[in-house]
Specification:
Blueprint (H helix, E strand, L loop, with lengths): L1 H10 L7 H10 L5 H9 L6 H28 L7
């Protein structure tokens, strides 16, 4: 996705203004060494179907909490309609 954004910016002749983007690109596309490869390989988290389902369940719980709070606010403080 970052490559597409960079290509779009270059096509529109817009400079990269974000320091974070420049630093990430330097880190990602810098020189490759076996030590960097081993460090990155060891830091990759395990992501499988169980993790995905747990993430979806957590998101569903958060949205349910937000919906309930919103409904309670609408019941307790009804919006004033001005005509």
């Amino acid at each position: 996705m970052r490559e597409h954004a960079n290509a779009a910016r270059q096509k529109a002749r817009q400079p990269v203004l974000s320091v974070c983007t420049i630093l990430r690109d330097r880190e990602r596309y810098g020189k490759w060494t076996p030590e960097i490869h081993m460090r990155e390989r060891d830091n990759v988290p395990e992501y499988n179907e169980d993790t995905f389902r747990a993430t979806l369940a957590a998101l569903d719980a958060q949205w349910l909490k937000i919906k309930v709070c919103t409904m309670l606010l609408l019941i307790l403080i009804p919006p004033r309609l001005s005509i």
